[in-house]
Amino acid sequence: MTIPKELRDDLQIEEGTTFTVVREGSDIRLVRNLPELQTLSAGKSREEWGEKAFRDAGDATFGGR
């Protein structure tokens, strides 16, 4: 299946992106498979980072929601 370049560029779909095909009644929907998220710690332990760094990470990422 070919996705038009303009749409790929707009949705930031790169070569090698994989999708799951989902049937919804008589429609077909493509769902982009996202890569697994990884936790990065720069080689430091939780103790080295301290509790405040981990507590504030959620606020920084999600705006305190």
TrEMBL record:
Q: Which SUPFAM superfamilies match?
A: AbrB/MazE/MraZ-like
One term of GO molecular function? DNA binding
Q: Which domain of life is it from?
A: Archaea
Domain named SpoVT-AbrB: residues = 1-36
Q: Which InterPro entries match?
A: SpoVT-AbrB_dom (IPR007159), SpoVT-AbrB_sf (IPR037914)
Q: What is this protein called?
A: SpoVT-AbrB domain-containing protein
